[in-house]
Amino acid sequence: MNGFQLQQMVTDIEDGWRVSHFCTTRLGISRKMLVSIKNHGDITRNGQHVNVHDVLHAGDRVHVFFPEETPAPDMVATEGELDILFEDDWLLVVNKPPGMASIPSRLHPERSLSNYVLGYYRKQGIPYAIHIVNRLDRDTSGLVLFAKHGLAHHRMSLMQRSNELERHYLAYAPGNVPVQTIDQPIGQTDHSFMERMVRPDGQRAITHILNSRLVRAFDQEISLLDIRLETGRTHQIRVHLAFLGHPLIGDTMYQGNPLLPRQALHSASATFLHPATGERVRFEAPLPEDLRLEG
Q1: Which of 113, 109, 88, 85 has the alpha carbon at shortest distance from 98?
Q2: Which residues are CB-neighbours of 154 under 8 A, at least 6 positions away?
Q3: How far is CA 206 from CA 71, 186, 198, in A?
């Protein structure tokens, strides 16, 4: 089988558990994924096939064979360079340049970051589909996480929902922007499919401005902001800063000053517990040259 595989020994605490309970509780496999494994993969106990209702005993070795993954049939594998910050059997961490979409679209099906990742997978013989954890706007640069397989993606999604995936952004906004938490709902505007705005009937969105430092650039004072997202709404940082009256430098969609050819926003770091080891890890993407504005 070419799918992902996972092995684990049953402990005394788990003695008497059914296979299904062991898989969902101890291995973090979702029930939907377990059904897929039953139909298209396999589970063995000490080398022998078992049913999900079978009972386990201390010392048993459980081996889960996940179904083989295939990318969407219309997903194009594009060859090209990737700025890889980290890679193991569970994760791929990539530094996305500005001007590149995170995922393909109907009009642009070939040159998104996900297309390049799939091209890399094909070249390296990595037998998985694309599981993007965090998307960035086309003109936002920086760190993007890919889960290598379905189990890694499920565990990362759980961390996102419980706010255990800590994401920090660096941004430049005009004037003196104070440290604060912005808790304002965001929804789609009435006149644009793409544009968002703060509106009472929107989804709750929380942005923390953790640090603000005045710097001199473009012959004016602007704030270099360290921002942590608690939620992940479309255009969240851009909309919240525009709501404050400090739209990002270069963010013309939200009336930002066009001093740069793109919004001054960079996904700088991510901190979380590794989905396999539970070890706290931190990944950083360096600020690109076009956003080194001080001086």
Answers
A1: 113
A2: 28, 29, 30, 33
A3: 33, 10, 11
Catalytic hit among 137, 183, 190, 226: 137
Its pTM stands at: 0.93
User: Rounded distance, CA 61 to CA 43, Å?
Assistant: 10
CA distances from 116 to 14, 84, 110, 119, 122 (A): 42, 11, 8, 5, 10
Question: For residue 87, which phi and psi values (nearest 5 degrees)?
Answer: -155, 135
Phi/psi at 145 (nearest 5 deg)? Answer: -100, 135
Q: What is the DSSP string of 71-92?
A: --TT---------EEEE-SSEE
Tokens 């086309």 sit at which residue? 138
**Comparing C-alpha atoms, which of 61, 59, 30 is closest to residue 43?**
61
Tokens representing 216 are: 């001199």
Tokens matching residue 155: 């565990």
Write out residues in the chain with pLDDT < 50, as ranges: 1
Place of tokens 């360096």: 286
Distances, alpha carbon 226 to alpha carbons 204, 209, 244, in Å: 21, 6, 16
- Are 225 and 171 in contact by the 8 Å Cβ rule? The answer is yes
137 assigned to active site: yes
